[in-house]
Design brief:
The protein is an alpha/beta fold and 254 residues long. The chain has one domain: Survival protein SurE-like phosphatase/nucleotidase (Stationary-phase Survival Protein Sure Homolog, Chain: A, 3-Layer(aba) Sandwich). It contains six helices and 13 strands. The chain has a nine-stranded mixed β-sheet with strand order 3-4-2-1-5-6-7-13-8, with helices on both faces. The protein has a two-stranded antiparallel sheet with strand order 9-12. Strands 10-11 form a two-stranded antiparallel sheet. The longest helix is centred in the middle third of the chain and has 16 residues. The protein binds manganese (II) ion (MN).
């Protein structure tokens, strides 16, 4: 099995080492192609207004001076010798739960894989003050990653779908199990924008996505993480809201 590894935290991110450790339990045919710098929040963006450069670090190990989507495109079209059987993206440092996924470079790299018809899984380690910076920071992902991926290797993936996996912020032996759940809802409307002055006195703004209020709806990824479970959510690229088609069409009639 040929596996392509990518992420949005950048080639040198600690979670990327964790991902490789996980992937090596399934195969030795590992290819690495990730953004050279952190691209968190890049979503599914493509670099169109400047060239991207490919950096080769070793056999089958590359970085791209672009976004996660650029990296997957480069891997599939320029770098790899044949298509991968699986794309793993992560392990992101931080949650990709609820509506996070629309901003997520980690999930978007997997989306790019799904668009190319390749089985793709995004992996994120939720962090908290308790585990951040400790040996447990990626502990849940390291231990539970293989358990979450293994059943997905043979499971049928419908066309234009992918799977999003989040690990709860607690030591691996405190994780209660794995739940397959739907995407929850975050309220980002009150997300913080920090204002400050740069060294030359000019005003700047810095987006923060912390301290988000959310309701823990039953059966969601948010609830599963809160309960201490690994959250596994199948996602689809078709964003059409089907029940609104007739309603909207009615507004354009007559
Ligand atoms: Mn990230």
């Amino acid at each position: 099995m040929r596996i392509l590894l990518t992420n949005d935290d950048g080639y040198h991110a600690p979670g990327f080492e964790v991902l490789e450790e996980i992937a090596r339990q399934f195969s030795d045919d590992i290819w690495v192609c990730a953004p050279s710098e952190e691209q968190s929040g890049a979503g599914h963006s493509l670099t169109l207004n400047r060239p991207v450069r490919l950096q080769k670090f070793a056999e089958r190990r590359f970085a791209v001076t672009g976004t996660p989507t650029d990296s997957v495109m480069m891997a599939l079209r320029e770098v790899m010798d044949g298509e991968p059987d699986l794309i793993l993206s992560g392990v992101n440092r931080g949650a990709n739960l609820g509506d996070d996924i629309t901003y997520s470079g980690t999930v978007s790299a997997a989306i790019e894989g799904a668009l190319a018809g390749i089985r793709a899984i995004a992996l994120s380690q939720v962090y908290s003050r308790d585990t951040n910076g400790t040996e447990h920071e990626f502990g849940a992902a390291r231990e539970w990653g293989p358990k979450a991926i293994e059943p997905l290797l043979k499971a049928p993936f419908a066309e234009r779908t992918l799977v999003n996996v989040n690990f709860p912020p607690r030591p691996a032996n405190d994780v209660k199990g794995i739940r397959v759940v739907r995407q929850g809802f975050h309220d980002y409307s009150r997300g913080s924008i920090v204002e400050g002055r740069d060294p030359r006195g000019h005003r700047y703004f810095w987006f923060g996505l912390h301290a988000i209020e959310h309701t823990l709806d039953h059966g969601t990824d948010l609830e599963a993480i809160d309960d201490g479970y690994v959250a596994v959510t199948p996602l689809q690229l078709d964003l059409t809201h089907y029940s609104s088609i007739d309603t909207l069409a009615g507004r354009f009639e007559g």
